[in-house]
Design goal:
384 residues, alpha/beta, Rossmann fold, 3 domains, five-stranded parallel β-sheet, 16 helices, 37% helix, binds nicotinamide-adenine-dinucleotide, binds 4-phospho-D-erythronate, pyridoxine biosynthesis, protein dimerization activity, oxidoreductase, NAD(P)-bd_dom_sf, cytoplasm
Length: 384
């Protein structure tokens, strides 16, 4: 069996070598020729999987080690009897930690002793959005959920949902929808001129869903006005050829790495391994946990003199500080268009190992219940 795989999928050999031969190719530049003789195709989000790529090949199973599926023509796969699996939720926790880290920087920048005075509108309350909302609520933030497809499907049985207009009135608005252009609630350019107009300089807009959910031209125009909101973007229209002018206009700019914790990436590989095993009728023998190394920093101790909010911010930033990614992306915007696109992909390909908060045991000497609860809400393990 020949498995053609994006070279950026971690642990390919560990999970798949005993199932067949593996041919590693560039996900961004994968061609018909690369996949013609493949039985299985494993991709990440940068490969468009459709008729153009697969017609005439013998591929019988496609797995994407990602949450997003907008790069896959699932209808064409189904029509052609090709099995498919994504990795729902695989890196949701990583994205949540990215948002928490952005919020902590924002709270500090605004001079809030405690960021949880802010209201947060979560647009898209699926795996990422609902996990984020739960953590924020435990931390004391006021959270409003906007998810029209869920509101329609769940009615009175679900949580309370608000309209997009209401969500856009929150101090912070964070986007976690898939990219869709069909159906009753398409998200392509969901945020355009009309939605950006009422935002003010006191508000923060975060996008770690897909770049095309925001209209770049409308956002650039809004950001050039005096009362523009603060914006943090992890995802961009037209990746990897992103707009350098937009990078210059936003507060925090990262190269689509919100989901790039080691745990999230390895879980993505594990989930497509599980799906392929099921497709082939093979037993599932490997688990992500067996391949996760001991983190370089595994314990952190705060003494009884530590301030709760400062300690929480410190611990969060020990695990992840988006400012480092922001600096790298801004540096990558030098050069011509081709060099910039290559640099964007280079930052993602060579992304440093980032561990989730759950990899860190935190000791809180003499801490009260509220401080312990805050650390647990973020996801740290407490060392008693
Ligand atoms: N930046 C990153 O690294 C990164 C990582 C993971 C996922 N993502 C993106 O985030 C998206 C969300 O991830 P998820 O795991 O929560 O997906 P999910 O499918 O679990 O949830 C998406 C939610 O969005 C809702 N939704 C759909 N259309 C909507 C609309 N018009 N308005 C409001 N809500 C709408 C859906 O009903 C659903 O509840 C993914 O599709 C992916 O594109 C990005
Ligand atoms: O959809 C996802 O899971 C994320 O956007 C994912 O982190 C994208 O990473 P890529 O597949 O581009 O490496």
């Amino acid at each position: 069996m020949l498995i053609v795989a994006d070279e950026n999928i971690p642990l390919l050999d560990a999970f798949f070598a005993d199932m067949g031969d593996i041919r590693r190719v560039s996900g961004r530049h994968m061609s018909r020729k690369d996949v013609r003789d493949a039985d299985v195709l494993l991709v990440r989000s940068v490969t468009r999987v459709d008729r153009d790529l697969l017609a005439g090949s013998r591929v019988k199973f496609v797995g994407t080690a990602t949450i997003g599926t907008d790069h896959i023509d699932q209808q064409w796969l189904a029509d052609n009897g090709i099995g498919f699996s994504a990795a729902p939720g695989c890196n949701a926790n990583s994205v949540v930690e990215y948002v928490l880290a952005v919020l902590s920087l924002h709270a500090e920048r605004c001079g809030f002793a405690n960021g949880n005075e802010l209201s947060v509108g979560v647009v898209g309350a699926g795996n990422v959005g609902s996990r984020l909302a739960e953590k924020l609520q435990r931390l004391g933030f006021k959270v409003l959920l906007c998810d029209p497809p869920r509101a329609e499907a769940e009615g009175d049985q679900g949580p309370e949902f608000v309209s997009l207009e209401q969500a856009l009135q929150c101090d912070v608005v964070t986007l976690h929808t898939p990219l869709t252009d069909q159906g009753r609630h398409p998200t392509h350019h969901l945020i355009g001129e009309k939605q950006l107009a009422p935002l003010n300089a006191g508000q923060l807009l975060i996008n770690s869903g897909r770049g095309e959910v925001i209209d770049t031209e409308a956002l650039k125009a809004r950001l050039k006005q005096d009362d523009a909101p603060l914006v943090a973007l992890d995802v961009w229209e037209n990746e990897p050829a992103i707009d350098p002018e937009l990078v210059g206009l936003v507060w925090l700019a990262t190269p689509h790495i919100a989901g790039y914790s080691l745990e999230g990436k390895v879980r993505g590989t594990e989930m497509i391994y599980q799906a392929l095993s099921k497709h082939l009728g093979l037993p599932v023998r490997k688990k992500a946990g067996q391949f996760l190394p001991e983190p370089p920093l595994s314990k952190l101790t705060f003494t009884s003199t530590a301030d709760e909010q400062k300690a929480l911010r410190t611990a969060l930033r020990v695990c992840y500080d988006p400012r480092a990614d922001d600096v790298q992306l801004r540096l990558a915007m030098n050069g011509d268009a081709g060099e910039r696109a290559e640099a964007f992909d280079g930052l993602r390909k060579n992304y440093p190992v980032r561990r989730e908060c759950s990899s860190l045991k935190v000791q809180l000497k003499g801490a009260g219940r509220s401080m312990q609860e805050s650390f647990k809400a973020v996801g740290f393990k407490l060392k008693l």
